[in-house]
Amino acid sequence: MQVDEPVRLPRLSRAAVCGGTHGNELSGVYLVREMLKPENRKEDGGPASLLMLLSNPRAVQQCTRYVDTDLNRCFTHATLNGPASEGAPYEIFRARELNNLLGPKGSRAAVDLICDLHNTTANMGLCFIAYSDCDWVCLHIFRHLQMPDTPMRFIHFDVSTKESYSLDSIGKHGFAMEIGPQPHGCIKSNIYTAMREGVQHMRDWVSCFNSGESNVSFKTSKCFLSQDRDFCLLRPGEPLFQTFSGETVKYQGAEALYAFFINECAYYKKGIALSLARKRRVSVPSIRVRGS
Ligand SMILES: [Zn+2]
Question: Which CATH entry fits the domain spanning 7-219: 1.10.12.10, 3.30.70.120, 3.40.190.290, 3.40.630.10?
């Protein structure tokens, strides 16, 4: 592939913005409700069809992460296509409904792009979370965002398509937009505003791409250290936890890694204190809609 030749990709005709996949992550819930108001349904030349929906309405109603089981772990091929007994968790039925509406996962009928909105209690700024580090559409949308006051990162979960488990994996392209810190069940204006701007930037980028414009620009984001230490490098031997009796527990890994989702309250039940990632550099080719 020549470096200068843009990669030709199909038009993004159908996109979905989903909130309330976790019912107590309120920025996405309020943003989707707001976007669904008739006065806000503007035609901006974005995707020909933009679907907005609350993924887990029962959990939203109860302002809880989920009713029976975590909906955002129900989108593996096995869960979507396996047998479901009558007493199966509500979220399994809901995942299948969503798969019919936005998928089926892995098929040509699936929507072109899914943006799933989440909040974290961790101090992570704005994160794009995706299963691919060579999905140029997601990477271009990410690079199009420019929010000087919000740190931004792209997190690649290295999981195969078959094992990918979250709602955004149903679309041909998909990512979760995860913004924090915000306590679950609360809404903070700065976090809500960052999410609203992020979604608007995404829509702008999609309309620009669909129009065939070559100037789907790159913008660079600022990165700075946060006081809660998400995305700081954790080196072997550095202090990691303090026990209630006052002892320091050190990081025993052999490799220096970046910590994130530090002390995320939804992960207490799972016994996950933090996640660790390796930093990678990805070169993204320029892209152009096919046929322009
Ligand atoms: Zn979530």
Answer: 3.40.630.10
